[in-house]
Amino acid sequence: MKFSDYPVATDCLGLVSDWTYALNGNGELSDVLDRLMRLLKAEVVAIVRMSKADFSVQAVARTDMQKGKVWPTQFCSCAGEIVGEFITSAKVGSLWKLSEAKSSNLDRPAANDTGVPDHIFEGIVSPLETTCSHIDFIELYFDHQPAEHDLQLLVMLIGTLTSGWRRRAPASISRAINPKRKLSRVLERKDNQFSVLDPENPAQLSRSEYRICSLLSEGMTVQVIAKVLSIRPATVRSHLSSTFSKTGASSQVELLYQLNNKPKPSHEIDVIEKSNRRVN
Question: Which secondary-structure segment (H or E) carries 220?
Answer without folding.
Answer: none
